[in-house]
Structure prediction request, 126 residues.
Amino acid sequence: MADNPWNFDVPTQMRQFAEQSVEQAKKAVDGFLTAAQKTTAALETQANTAQSGAKDVREKVMSFAEENIANSFEFAQKLVRAKDVQEVMALQQEFLKAQMQAMQAQAQDLGSAAQKAAASVAKRKS
Prediction:
């Protein structure tokens, strides 16, 4: 069996680190989804007259969720292919940095869409 290149053991520490990284990514995405759902629900409640604005926000939230989930799975796949702990650590750092940047941009975009929807509601109430 030692001649089989597909038969290898992944070090326990590396496996634990990979599992922790995937769990951190999942928690980040779950937190974003929860916040986005609350925002969308609040907007929909307050903006019955601005359905197009609420629809835009809802579509953005779903798009962001899909993007973040895809990024998380791509990261998990990269971790599985990592050759050593240093590569795992570099991948983790790269992923966290990219996710924080993406979430910041998404939050700004979502905030802008929410302001637009709120302004639409305020304009219609006047």
About this structure: The first helix runs from residue 12 to 46.
